[in-house]
Specification:
- The chain is built from 3 helices and no strands.
- The chain is mainly alpha-helical.
- The longest helix has about 35 residues.
- The N and C termini lie far apart (about 45 Å).
């Protein structure tokens, strides 16, 4: 029970910081003419994932057990983190190349 309290505190602090950050970062990464479409897509994906994810993981939990469900979620999180890190490295390289060529971003 005592290990749950710090985890709950991290969640309570992290979610309010995360929620407004992603749309702001998205707006900085796309041209002004595409911002509405990107924000709509972000909102649609967030809404769909809030419905589909609990149902899917609940089905895995019910069918295969807790260990499989938690292992699956952990694997998905690790894969997402790896893909994000790889994408961040590619964007950093692209920005470095663009800046050296005299081009600017949409910031």
């Amino acid at each position: 029970p005592f290990t749950l309290i710090p985890a709950m505190a991290c969640y309570a602090i992290g979610v309010p910081l995360f929620s407004p950050t992603v749309p702001i970062l998205l707006l900085k990464c796309v041209p002004p003419t595409q911002r509405g479409a990107v924000m709509g897509l972000d909102s649609a994906l967030n809404s769909a994932s809030r419905v589909v994810s609990p149902l899917a993981i609940g089905a895995v939990y019910h069918g295969a057990g807790a260990q499989v469900a938690f292992t699956l979620v952990g694997a998905i999180l690790w894969a997402t983190a790896a893909a994000t890190a790889a994408r961040a490295a590619a964007v950093k390289q692209q920005r470095t190349t663009s800046m050296s060529a005299g081009r600017t971003s949409w910031n």
